[in-house]
Design goal:
The structure is a single chain. By secondary structure, the chain is α+β, with helices and mostly antiparallel strands. It has one domain: Calycin beta-barrel core domain (Lipocalin, Beta Barrel), CATH 2.40.128.20. It contains 2 helices and 10 strands; from the N terminus they run αβββββββββαβ. Strands 1-3-4-5-6-7-8-9-2-10 form a 10-stranded antiparallel beta sheet, covered by helices on one side. The longest helix has 14 residues. It binds 2-acetamido-2-deoxy-beta-D-glucopyranose (NAG) (3 copies).
């Protein structure tokens, strides 16, 4: 079964095309971000937080654009071998595609780019007692994305001063996947 899913996932990944014309970097239609997503990669200037047992190592399931403009993320993560689900509601700000949330300090969450149909890249900046941490996440509509989307992610990471060494591959790392 797992193999079948893997093969299916790879087929879907193989069918993906990166279309530069479809990339949106401003004036987002957030309703189109709604729906199911998979965690593909994360990056941070503090790897401890996205490594195993890191507080920001969370796996996306679904994003919902709420009527009041807030953005709800459904995540799963592991706590002592158990899968835990958590909903996080980020409040909209007056900037399009930009949200805020209090969690381990103050966080700014924003869409960096998306094509709505294949991938989305989020940027998060956490400020906790004067310490700033930057986190980026690449989510896919399918569980695996072709390398061109990873390259795209690396490019965006660079823009936020994070190098390839700051990136963690999260495909095949979601141990709550089968319970989905
Ligand atoms: C990285 O995160 C860990 C866990 O939250 C924290 O203990 C550590 O101080 C952080 N390191 C830096 C350089 O901020
Ligand atoms: C929007 O609705 C959600 C869910 O009901 C709620 O958690 C959030 O606080 C609301 N945001 C605002 C700004 O009212
Ligand atoms: C916040 O930072 C200050 C100065 O570095 C430190 O004295 C204090 O213990 C920190 N507070 C917390 C809750 O980490």
């Amino acid at each position: 079964m797992a193999l079948l899913l893997l093969v299916l996932g790879l087929r879907l990944a193989g069918a993906q095309r990166f279309d530069p014309q479809a990339v949106v970097q401003r004036n987002y239609n957030m309703a189109r971000i709604s729906g199911a997503w998979y965690s593909i990669s994360m990056a941070s200037d503090n790897l401890t937080r996205i490594e195993e047992d890191g507080d920001l190592r969370v796996f996306i399931r679904n994003i919902e654009h709420l009527k009041n403009g807030s953005l709800k993320f459904d995540f799963h993560f592991m706590v002592q071998g158990e899968c835990v689900a958590v909903d996080v509601v980020c409040q909209k700000t007056d900037q399009n595609g930009e949200y805020s949330i209090s969690y381990q300090g103050e966080n700014k969450v924003l869409v960096s780019e998306t094509d709505y149909k294949t991938y989305v890249i989020f940027y998060m900046q956490n400020t906790n007692n004067g310490t700033q941490t930057r986190v980026l996440a690449l989510y896919g509509r399918v569980s695996e994305l072709s390398p061109i989307f990873q390259h795209r992610f690396e490019k965006i990471c660079k823009k936020y001063k994070l190098s390839a060494q700051n990136i963690m591959d999260l495909t095949q790392q979601d141990h709550c996947y089968s319970k989905r």
